[in-house]
Design brief:
GO terms for molecular function: ATP binding; phosphorelay sensor kinase activity. It catalyses: ATP + protein L-histidine = ADP + protein N-phospho-L-histidine. This protein is an alpha+beta fold. The chain folds into four domains: about 260 residues; about 100 residues, Beta-Lactamase, CATH 3.30.450.20; about 60 residues; about 180 residues, Histidine kinase-like ATPase, C-terminal domain (Heat Shock Protein 90). The protein is about 60% helix and about 15% strand. The chain contains 21 helices and 14 strands. The chain has a five-stranded antiparallel beta sheet with strand order 4-3-7-6-5. Strands 9-11-12-14-13 form a five-stranded mixed beta sheet, covered by helices on one side. The protein has a two-stranded antiparallel sheet with strand order 1-2. The two termini are about 115 Å apart. About 30% of the residues are buried.
């Protein structure tokens, strides 16, 4: 910010200020002052100072009352400050020598107060810039100025500590001379601030009169530097400049502090009026649009009715229980002659009796505005029953809140689904049958081929009289015969179970002894596969109602699977323990395990994890299905826990019994060793030891 810029800005605003109007005004005020001065110098001094007091008080009153509405605190603060400058000027007037208002009046005190008022004026102008475009707290500022005025008054009148500013016969003192010089210089700072904030004050709005006020204030202090006689011409010019200074400041403040708030208020009203006019125009446009839309809606409503009437789906509208509208498809669905036969009737007249309560619960009593669905039977007017699916939603019909129902005839669709389900079942049955026969032919052909091959080899050994070779292949023939016998037994038993002809011989037996004997009999087969088998029980005796032959088949089947699907150097454990009123039998291995998605179907007939004909282990897929059936025939349950790579655990549960009267008398009658071995040979026939 250069000095040339400031001077140039001041020069421009001075040119604006000294227009014809202001120039004539200045000349007029000067002429009036000259006339009064020439008439009575003391009167002139009194009137000029009284004028500044009056102007100051006017600015104070106006600023205090309209400060809340003013948006620019700069002028409000300045008006309050100059109001209290007027108060100091009042003290200056009443102390002037010759006025004789107070007894202790003197020219020295009057000049001191005049200097004080000038400094307060300069300080007020400097501080006012802090409130540009801000609200001011008039009460707080008033308290500050009142305190300052009170202190000044007390110091001036009670304490004789102020140096002399004027001496009779000598004139103004050197101190007063320098104070006047300094007061001229101190106005440089407000001038700089005025330039700095010129954009906020917007001098294009005639605010340059503030600059005129500052110029005349400075000129007033300049004249006071050189005056000798208080009533001389120089003092006269100083007072004229002071009058002009207050006038132009009053003009600016009145414009912005008094007139501008009202302009702002009226501007706000004008803005609101304009907005209301714009809103009114928009409302008129929207009203026209609404009229157009209403006409379109009426036409659309008519088209909608025609569309609903011609829809292929049955449409019914009810208000409460009363039917108020049906389309042509509903008339045909209910075998009515026309719509009038249905409209006006109760909904319950077309609903089958057993569905009325359900309809009330879902559609009549419920307060739900969303779509609702229900399957129920409707009654046609000629008494036929229809399976239907109903979708209902709220709608407005004839300016009433009603319910629109879309009715679909599900009779044909139901028949279709039933036929489809039957077809799917037959396809699945045929698929299982095909897989079974393919598997069965494989299971039959394999042992037969083995037997045939063994017989051919035996012919060779017979010719060579090699008895050991013949015995070896006799064992192979025997094992495959057992395999065929096992398959035949399983098929016969499955058939008997399905037809209800399979009757177990149920008696009370010690299941611990039965299972332990079976486990001991299979140890040879198990160890031949490098698998360890362990039998463990927490009870010595536990009696259940069972058939020992079926228990034997169940355990042998599970152990056969554990051996076939167990890993080398693996383990099989058979545990028996009591739990409440049940006996738990666990068969656990650490083999390959069963996938999660196969565990739900593993007990189904013909089910196998590996269905391919190149599978590693042989089997017909009947074993576990037969086991489940045999367990359930003895009032038991079987369940499975398995995890891939960790093995499988089958848990069989039988009801425990405390009735011992029918327990078999001898062990030989229960489990004969030769019979168990025969059963083991049959159940383990698909496990080859060579």
């Amino acid at each position: 910010m250069r000095l040339n810029d400031i001077l140039s800005w001041i020069n421009i605003n001075i040119r604006k200020a000294f227009n014809i109007k202001n120039t004539l005004l200045i000349l007029g005020i000067t002429m009036i002052c000259t006339l009064v001065y020439s008439y009575n110098k003391l009167l002139f001094h009194f009137l000029s100072e009284s004028y500044t007091v009056l102007i100051g008080f006017l600015m104070l009153v106006v600023a205090t009352n309209v400060s809340e509405a003013s948006e620019n605190g700069f002028f409000s603060f300045l008006a309050i400050g100059f109001g209290y400058v007027g108060a100091i000027n009042l003290l200056h007037v009443i102390n002037y020598e010759g006025i004789n208002i107070i007894s202790k009046s003197s020219l020295n005190i009057s000049i001191q107060l005049g200097a004080i008022s000038t400094y307060i004026q300069a300080i007020s102008m400097a501080i006012a810039f802090k409130f540009i475009n801000k609200k001011v707290d008039c009460r707080k500022i008033t308290y500050i100025y009142m305190t300052a005025i009170t202190v000044i008054t007390l110091v001036t009148y009670t304490l004789d500590i102020s140096p002399a500013f004027y001496l009779e016969g000598y004139g103004q003192t050197v101190l007063n001379h320098w104070i006047n010089i300094f007061s001229c210089l101190i106005f440089i700072f407000p001038t700089y601030l005025l330039y700095k904030h010129k954009n906020e004050l917007d001098f294009e709005k005639d605010n340059y009169t503030v600059i005129l006020s500052m110029i005349f204030t400075v000129l007033s202090r300049v004249f006071l530097i050189f005056y000798i006689d208080p009533n001389g011409i120089i003092a006269f010019l100083a007072h004229v400049c002071r009058v002009l200074s207050f006038y132009f400041l009053y003009k600016s403040i009145m414009k912005l502090v008094l007139r501008e708030p009202y302009n702002i208020l009226f501007k706000g009203l004008n803005d609101r009026t304009c907005k209301l006019e714009e809103i009114n125009k928009e409302l008129n446009i929207k009203n026209n649009q609404l009229e157009t839309t209403r006409d379109r809606l009426e036409k659309s409503k008519e088209r909608y009715k025609q569309l609903v009437k011609s829809l292929p789906d049955s449409i019914l509208i009810r208000c409460g229980e009363e039917i108020v509208f049906v389309n042509n498809a509903t008339v045909n669905l209910l075998n009515a002659k026309n719509r009038s036969e249905i409209i006006g009737n109760s909904m319950f007249s077309i609903i089958h009796d057993k569905y009325i309560d359900e309809f009330k619960e879902n559609f009549i009593t419920v307060e739900n505005k969303k779509q609702r669905f229900l399957n129920l039977e409707l009654m046609t007017l000629d008494g036929n029953r229809l399976d239907t699916e109903i979708c209902e939603i709220e709608t407005v019909f004839e300016n009433k809140l009603c319910n629109l129902m879309v009715i679909r005839n599900m009779s044909e669709r139901k028949k279709f689904y039933e036929l489809k389900a039957e077809l799917d079942q037959k396809i699945e049955s045929e698929k299982i049958r095909t897989e079974f026969f393919a598997n069965l032919s494989h299971e039959l052909r394999t042992p037969i081929n083995v037997i045939y091959s063994a017989l051919q080899l035996e012919d060779i050994y017979i010719k060579k009289n090699d008895i050991s070779g013949i015995e070896k292949y006799n064992e192979i023939v025997k094992q495959n015969c057992y395999r065929l016998l096992r398959m035949c037994n399983n098929l016969i038993d499955i058939t008997k179970i399905d037809t209800g002809l399979f009757k177990p011989c149920m008696k009370h037996h010690n299941i611990v002894y039965i299972v332990e004997s079976i486990v001991s009999s299979v140890s040879f087969y198990v160890k031949s596969k490098n698998i360890d088998i362990v039998f463990d029980t927490s009870v010595e005796e536990s009696y259940v109602l069972c058939d020992p032959n079926l228990i034997e088949r169940i355990i042998l089947n599970l152990l056969s699977n554990a051996v076939k699907y167990g890993k080398e150097n693996g383990n099989i454990s058979v545990d028996i323990y009591d739990r409440d009123n049940e006996v738990i039998l666990n068969v656990k291995d650490d083999g390959i395990g069963i996938p999660d998605d196969e565990q739900d179907t593993i007990f189904e007939r013909f089910s196998q994890v590996d269905k391919s004909l190149r599978r590693k282990c042989e089997g017909s897929g009947l074993g576990l299905s037969l086991v489940k059936s045999l367990v359930e025939l003895q009032n038991g349950n079987i369940s499975l826990k398995s995890k891939i790579g960790e093995g499988s655990e089958f848990m069989i549960t039988f009801p425990k019994t405390d009735y011992y009267d029918e327990v078999c008398a001898t062990t030989d009658e229960l489990v004969e060793e030769n019979k168990i071995i025969e059963s083991v040979n049959i159940e383990f026939s698909d496990i080859y030891l060579y």
